[in-house]
Amino acid sequence: MLKLTLPESKPLIKAGDKEVLLVTNADQRESANVECWPVQHKFEVRLEQALQKRFGVKVKRAHPYKNDKGHGFIAGQREGSDLFAAIDPDAPVIVLLTAWQYSHHLAPSLVKHRGPMLLLANFDGTFPGLVGMLCMAGTLTSLGKTDYSRLWSSDFDDEFFFKGLESWLKTGTIAHDTSYLHPVDASHPVSQTPAWAIGRQVGEFVLRNKEIMGLFDTLCMGMINGVFPQKALVNIGMPLESLSQSALLVEMAKVPQTLREECLAWYEARGMKFQFGADPVTELTREHVLEQCAMLIAMARFTQRFGLSSVGVQYQLGLAHSCAASDFAEGAIGSTERFPIPDEAGNIIRPGKPITCINEVDMGTAIPQTMLFRLLDSLGLPSETTLHDIRWGSEFDGTFYWDFEISGSVPFEHLKGGIAGATGYRQAAMFFPYGGATIQGQGKAGRVIWARAHYEGTQVILHIGIGTAVELPEAEFERRRHATNYEWPLLNCSLDGVGRDDLMAGHQSNHVTIAYVDQDKLQDVLRAFVAQAVTQGITVRVAGDAFKLL
């Protein structure tokens, strides 16, 4: 006879009358959690005061402060799963996020939670809970969980914040206006334009020939929303080539020292500045960048070997403890002006063209980046693309400008001054013990197309919009750099017809794809891009004033 023995269940953590449960999630790296804890604690106090004073509601923390760790965050999937196994599945839960968080710690449990659920974030550049909230929201949507609410505030003291809390407490939901997103398909009148016919041809080319996306490992930093079902990718003609970071290390070891030196000298000769020091533990060294040059060369050789349309390296995890950071290699490979990389036979790999780089192996940006490269390259237009974090934003001279900031690198063509406008800083030692250079600079002014893909079931959905990148005055730009990550590249832009709260309410990721397009070609490229997506079987939603431009 079978005998069943399971671990004993703990008593359920319940919320009493006029009480809500508080859960908070953050990093897997305890050093980051300790640094971020004081800000989290400050916002917990503010939330408790707001709920108690304005609504008579008490906050009950569902998990304790960890004295041995120096913080009170959930810091792992096992910890998050054990917590929610002990939480009443019908209890109202606020997930308070004030820093980057690994969504997979909580998402598998949040998907099954039945009670009202609020993702609440601070809106801040230095401790960007807004980035973590957008990632968690996109993750839940991708996993089929739609009955959650989201809310954000700079200081937890504005009317938008209070009205959102009131709605959630009364109804269990917060209704945000997402009418800035407009569905577009082949029935739209724009389908009769010449630009639509061009986009359709490009889409048919992709479906027939396939754009193979090569990624060195996936599921970066808890971003479940960045890992798409294989069927979703195959359906749109963009299958995955799954590569191993261990193989990248082997390929890097084959790159001779002389070629590494030649590569670094090439960038220095074109004016890139490196903030070199002597201590590899805390400063950037030439050895760090030489190793990054080896990675650049190895990545290009993999791209040729597998016939890849795009390539990406996982951010921070794995390689961060094995070699220098990938940032310089990623920005350089995605640039048209690039060190001539020879294959094993001495032939230069893809001269005069960027090799689209999928930072943080995010498939939701891999899709529009790879699509935009194919479209723009086919039209003979600049075809460099990048992703950015939706990091923060604030007003300057009466206009709200986003701070889009990638975690280390962009193509040189996206920077004011190009290669000569770039500076290599050491990536933060807290995250990258082996060092490595970023590619830092100010995003150049110009018109941009932005996009992001997510999935629902196995259907790919693409948000597409337009915007204007600006070069802010030096004092304002420096203020924003100091409020975010000083060593990372920063793009300031406004989005046409899409306000701050629009994007926060409807975007399904912490990332956005950017490509520059001249104003006189913007309408035609936008139309063609929409047509390309529709032809590939992607559901398209056009954002804000981009819909009018169609």
Low-confidence stretches: none
How large is the share of residues in beta strands?
15-25%
Q: Examine the coordinates and then state which fold CATH places here, giving the name of the CATH topology of the largest domain.
A: L-fucose Isomerase, Chain A, domain 3
Largest sheet: 6 strands, antiparallel, barrel
Radius of gyration in whole Å, from Cα? 23 Å
Mean pLDDT: 97
Shape: globular
Strand order of the largest sheet: 12-13-17-16-15-18
Task: Give the CA-CA distance, first to last residue.
Answer: 70 Å
Helix content: 25-40%
CATH level 1 name of the largest domain: Alpha Beta
Give the name of the CATH superfamily of the largest domain: L-fucose/L-arabinose isomerase, C-terminal
Count of alpha/pi helices: 16
In the CATH classification, which architecture of the largest domain applies?
A: Alpha-Beta Barrel
What is the domain total for the residues?
Answer: 2
Helix/strand/pairing category: alpha/beta
Give an account of the 3D structure.
The chain is of the alpha/beta class and 550 residues long. It is globular, with a radius of gyration of 23 Å. The protein has helices at residues 30-55, 77-85, 107-110, 129-142, 159-171, 194-209, 230-235, 245-253, 257-269, 286-306, 327-333, 363-378, 474-483, 500-506, 519-535, 545-549; strands at 19-24, 58-61, 93-97, 117-122, 149-153, 181-184, 213-216, 240-243, 273-274, 310-313, 356-357, 385-396, 399-405, 423-424, 446-456, 459-470, 490-495, 511-516, 539-543. It is 35% helix and 19% strand. Strand 7, helix 7 (230-235) and strand 8 (240-243) form a beta-alpha-beta unit. The N and C termini lie far apart (70 Å). The chain has two domains: 19-171, Rossmann fold; 184-549, Alpha-Beta Barrel (L-fucose Isomerase, Chain A, domain 3), CATH 3.20.14.10. The strands form four sheets. Strands 12-13-17-16-15-18 form a six-stranded antiparallel beta barrel, surrounded by four helices. Helix 6 (194-209) crosses helix 15.
